[in-house]
Amino acid sequence: MQNFTLDNFQSQALESAKKGNSVIVSAPTGAGKTLIAERIIEDCIKNQKGVVYTAPIKALSNQKFRDFSKKYPGKVGILTGDVSINRSAPILIMTTEIFRNAILVEPESFAERGWVIFDEIHYLDDIERGTVWEETIILLPPKMRLLALSATLPNIKEFVGWLKKVHSHPVESIVEETRPVPLHFFFQCNDNLFSSFKELKKSDLLYKTLRKQSYQENYWHSKPNKLKTLIKHLNGFKTFPCVYFSFSRRRCEDLAQDMGYLDFLNPSEKNLIDKTLNELIEKFNISPSTHVNFLIPLIKNGIAYHHAGLLPTLKEVIERLFTTGLIKFIFTTETFALGVNMPAKAVVFDTLSKFYGHYHGYLKTRDFYQMAGRSGRRGIDKEGFVFSRINPSHIDKASLEKIIYGGYEPIKSQLNSCYATILNLYKLMAERIYDIYPNSFHCYQSKMWEKKEIKGLLRRKVSLLKQLGYIKNGLITEKAILAAKVYSFELSVGELFAGKYFDACDGESLFTTITALVYEPRKGEMRPRLNKRAKGIKKDLNKSIKQIHRKERSFRISPLSKKPFFHLFESSSLWYQGVSFSRLQNTCSIDEGEIVRYFRMSIQVLRQIHSSKVISASLKQKLGNCLKKVNRDVIDAEKQLRQDL
């Protein structure tokens, strides 16, 4: 254990934890929240008590596994759905979904684990996945204490008030507002650089967004913000390494290409990056591809891009090169903001608006600082630099000021329990299932009409499950036992199972069917042409999902169960047949990283079905053979992670 002086907030958090309290820590990015987690982990090991560490995304779970394995060799395991390594280890890394599922089904398996650490607890506010965090906290075994970490938790008192109501043990909040490395904000507007918001306001550029002429409203055209101008200033401030955030994969690639003529490396760095890059490409067996061929010359100049469309192994190569300081400039989407040990000297925002699932809007202050917080390395930099590229036609003064100087948005409950959670709870509680709602954060912070709405939705979901035969005479049925394992695709899988569809399928049809169920096309993605086999499977799946939707609408349930999409049908067929991954890229226009992601999701669903006690021996064997055929090469997530052990 390192000996150095702890900050006050770190000491307070650790003292509170030693007293047996749960601890909620809100502190800026880079302030040292991870150190609190590490000290608690070390205490757990010393006292022979296990600990669970949850992260919001699999990539972050994998990175934590690598980091902790180096720090605590032989004492770390990981369980994410993709990967299962050393699951009985004292330190167990899990995604929050997997942890929720486990404590719901087998809480006794956590009897010897004293703590759970929730990294990025503000994910409870996430519209799509926030319900998982809330359900997990409600279901937490009584003996477990929780450490919740966030850089952006303004309503911490409300959150702690709820925790005290749900759990009988003491809960303490620790708030640190001072950032150890202060941020200096710059603004590029009209191709000029302004060193403060005050200076930008004085220029009057943000007041002139519109003017009227002859009853016509025209945009006031400013000079475009040139990348060359920005690079000149970044060079002047010596602000490398730099993370440039853009919210479009294609834009990241285009910007990297535009900068390709520059070389940020000196001769010794060029030799080192050549050597390191070749070693990593060989280690991870990375084959030539569109992205690889495009990236290699850029990387050799100290430039890269990083987004979810890249192969996981290629992303890891880029991350490793960035942490060595050899990549000086990286263009990336916002997922990089969740990276561990990826700090930079400067951060650039390409724009201050993004697509939020159902709408396009200005960045939330929380999201802005989650990304801006990557700048300024503690113990290395005196300040972090944040550059925002401003188009006065796209953002007004008040909105810009709110993003940068407004308060963080409070976290709000997104409770919306899925069918699997309801079935697992019904198995334990039967009609007492409705008694669980008063323990929710939603109930604690919502208005009366909101409470009535969510309770009504729960009752309607239970009624639907009864009508469809998942619940009978106060018990869950055989198809419900299977559906309760398959989160997000419960009714689709349940109905196909009950109709003997899976029993009639061959292995290839099983894989292509599940891939169709999990796949979600990106906006504007072209529909593929389907062969006769694909059309037959599509007809069967669409018939089943239409019947499910009809029932859901009659019970006023929203959102409806996910529709199947067949964009990966040819690719999944070929993959099952044993073709190499490089050949798949000719069968569709989908990014290689997306193919890997959806194949891994499909494998997770196949494993969930395979582990069910209600399937026939022949189906179990068929699923086992299917998994052997498809969980190979770059799709095998566990193989990639074991390479570091």
CATH topology type of the largest domain: Rossmann fold
Could you give a short account of the major beta sheet? 8 strands, mixed
Strand order of the largest sheet: 4-3-5-2-6-7-1-8
Number of strands: 21
What's the name of the CATH homologous superfamily of the largest domain?
A: P-loop containing nucleotide triphosphate hydrolases
The helix content, as a percent range, equals 40-55%
CATH class of the largest domain: Alpha Beta
Kindly report how far apart the N and C termini lie. 22 Å
Radius of gyration, rounded? Answer: 26 Å
The overall number of domains is: 3
CATH architecture level-2 label of the largest domain: 3-Layer(aba) Sandwich
Strand content: 5-15%
Average per-residue pLDDT, rounded, comes to: 91
**In terms of structural class, how would the helical and strand content be classed?**
alpha/beta
Spans of at least 5 consecutive residues with low confidence = 209-220
